[in-house]
């Protein structure tokens, strides 16, 4: 087998992992769920989930990946030979098909909206009902949604085919700084709008009466989704790391960047939404129904409209890359496929699995496959509500009770000799994270969460 490729630099790795974490989850999902579940109180619940669950699980994934230098399935096989633990990695490979297939469809919408913004289409949208019609017309057109989905998958495949250093790392180094610049520009625009304070207050002044069990369920599910955890993406990225790398500080930086960007996106969006007296609880369509009507009213709106959807598209690309890389790592490591063949076959397959999602806003809108959900809704629901938390839960059990806290600590120490934590303390932290995830999963299954 040829030598495993490694990241060219620490910055390259951090930008790639942050690129995976920062995606539609931060700019599309975080603002709309914050809007739906009560603003600052939700933000607080989310920050607690990130600290107590997200951060430890990220470290666990990096440690497993770096120790074994393998894809998620191979990693569990190496650490627990002859046991069914490899299935946790297998769950991750399946999760890629579920997540990437619909993720690519949403990314496709953002692409469609970049063109809409360029063509000046937003200028005819005076109020949200018109923007809603516009979105519905766009979503109902199978040709547009499928072509945009295809284009996104082609782009992601183009980067992944080039490999870790020349593809993923190179593009992350270009796209992530660009994303940050665009977001800063948009945030400043939002903050300088008259009435912007209301948007900021919505994000920082908690109303605890809004906090309930469901808020916490959603916050935890989102912590997994936004940090790309529970399906082996971070195991895969960790497997391209050398022993010299400091896992702890890398995870701190990545979690910080992800959270920071989500909050910045929240500010950029809610300042604009509140400045125009619009409702923050627009749901998944918030940025597609509400924002296009805001742009025509603000100075420079034409330009900011294009930038906003470009921002979303860039964020989606670097996350899509990390999703596809999980399957590619599996087929190249375990099955000896060439990277090129694996990307062509699986990029193509993910595209096909995504077609029903692309049609869910159009011809297949009435095809309810589960509890009134369209194919698209079902994919989203399954992944963020169950698959990712389940994967994360099993990883906690694996490290805490099979591989062992001592090995885990040793792995963190490699590259960071000053690190010290007693195995019992690590066990306690891992167990707390595991229990929190378990509660979420069980209550979710019992139907407490919507
Ligand atoms: N973290 C990405 C986002 O916030 C989504 C993602 C989930 C990517 C799981 C990879 C793995 O959009």
Describe the protein's topology:
Blueprint: H1 10-21, H2 24-36, H3 40-68, H4 72-79, H5 86-118, H6 128-140, H7 142-161, H8 164-191, H9 196-204, H10 213-226, H11 233-238, H12 247-275, H13 286-294, H14 301-333, H15 339-358, H16 375-403, H17 405-413, H18 423-445
Bound molecules: phenylalanine.
Question: Whole-number radius of gyration?
Answer: 21 Å
Poorly predicted segments: none
Count of DSSP H/I helices: 18
CATH architecture: Orthogonal Bundle
In sequence order, what are the helices and strands, one letter per element?
A: HHHHHHHHHHHHHHHHHH
How many discrete domains? Answer: 1
Envelope shape: globular
The level-1 CATH class = Mainly Alpha
Give a quick account of the main beta sheet: strands, pairing sense, barrel closure.
none
Number of strands: 0
Quote the CATH topology.
Hydantoin permease
The average pLDDT value, as a whole number, equals 92
Bound molecules: phenylalanine
Structural class: mainly alpha
The proportion of strand residues reads under 5%
Termini separation comes to 47 Å
Helix percent reads over 70%
